[in-house]
Design brief:
Structural class: mainly alpha
Number of domains: 1
Largest sheet: none
Pfam family, one: TFIIB
Keywords: Metal-binding, Nucleus, Repeat, Transcription, Transcription regulation, Zinc, Zinc-finger
Main location: nucleus
CATH topology: Cyclin A, domain 1
Low-confidence stretches: none
Mean pLDDT: 92
CATH class: Mainly Alpha
Shape: globular
Radius of gyration: 13 Å
Strand content: under 5%
Order of helices and strands: HHHHHH
Subcellular location: Nucleus
Number of strands: 0
Protein name: Transcription initiation factor IIB
């Protein structure tokens, strides 16, 4: 069990580091970074993104969080910063989208409701 907990902690650290770097380079606030980290972590826990790279998952989580906020960034902008193709960001986002309501932190301040998020 310690190995599993260690792996989960390693993933959480990785996503936190990726989100911090990518969101910083995109000029996004800490609230988006925190939401994107939670989205990525929860997506992994729910096994929504099996086989996807941490960078793709991080980029898709940032895309989802930004689209729900007033700080919207395109998949292309995020992909350029993250080093992922726009299509990869959107494909990974599509895996998250059906469960979006479960992925956000409870205290997230939505500007765009989950039901109104883009389909891709």
């Amino acid at each position: 069990m310690d190995a599993v907990n260690s792996h989960v902690n390693d993933l959480l650290t990785l996503y936190t580091n990726l989100q911090s770097r990518f969101c910083g380079n995109l000029g996004l606030p800490h609230s988006i970074q925190a939401a994107a980290t939670r989205i990525a972590k929860k997506a992994v826990e729910l096994d929504l993104v099996a086989g996807r790279s941490p960078i793709s998952i991080a980029a898709a989580a940032i895309y989802m969080a930004s689209q729900a906020s007033s700080n919207k960034k395109t998949a292309k902008e995020i992909g350029e910063i993250a080093g992922a193709a726009e299509v990869t960001v959107k494909q990974t986002y599509k895996l998250l989208y059906p469960r979006a309501g479960e992925l956000f932190p409870e205290d997230f301040k939505f500007t765009t409701a989950v039901e109104s998020l883009p389909l891709s």
